[in-house]
C-alpha cells in the first residue's frame, strides 16, 4: 500500500505542466518539437548579454509572479535560444534579473529534453554518484569560446515549472552539464569562473578574436 502523503504529493505534481515518472521527475522528452515551437512562435528574440555585464555576475531575483508578463518572458527566452542556436538559456542572458532558465538539450544518448525551470537548486550528490566528465563547455554569453571543465555527469535540479508547480528534473551527460551550467547562471556564475586563471584568459582571448554568430548586447 502506498503512503497516503506520498500519493498526495504525486497527485499534486501530476497537476503540473509536464507529466512525472514514478519517482516524481518530470518527463521532459515528449512532444519536444511541438512544445518548443509553441513557445518560440509566441516570443520575440532578444540579443544575448555577454560577460562583463553586471546582470550576469550577481544572483537573480526569485520568480514569484507567474502571470502573463512572465509567460511572455519564457516565450522570448525560447525564441532567443533558437536564434543563438543554444541548448539552454538563463533569463539574465537576455538582461532580465529573474531566476528562470529554459532548455532544449540532448543527452549523450541523443534524447531531446525540453522544459522550463524557475528558482532552481542543484541537489548535492552523494560521492558514489559523482563521476566527473571533463568535456568542453561553451556559453552564449562568452561567444565563440570553449574550454574543458570537469562537472558531474549526472545532475538533479529542484524548482518550479512556468506555472509555479514544484518540479524535479534530472539528466545525464551533456544534459546534466546543461542543468548545472544554467543553474550557475542564475546565481551569478559563468562557466569561465570555474576555470583556472590561464584557462579563463584563453577563453576571453577566443571571444575577443572571433565574431559571434548571433546578436549580442555590447558592453559600454
Structure notes:
Removes the formyl group from the N-terminal Met of newly synthesized proteins. Requires at least a dipeptide for an efficient rate of reaction. N-terminal L-methionine is a prerequisite for activity but the enzyme has broad specificity at other positions. Its cofactor is Fe(2+). InterPro entries: Peptide_deformylase, Peptide_deformylase_sf. This protein is of the alpha+beta class and 220 residues long. Helix content is 30%, strand content 22%. The chain has helices at residues 4-14, 32-42, 68-83, 173-186, 197-209, and strands spanning 48-49, 88-90, 100-106, 112-122, 132-133, 136-138, 146-148, 151-152, 154-160, 166-172, 216-217. The chain has a 5-stranded antiparallel beta sheet with strand order 2-3-4-9-10. The chain has a two-stranded parallel ribbon with strand order 1-11. The chain is globular, with a radius of gyration of 17 Å. The termini are far apart. Residues 1-14 have low confidence and may be disordered.
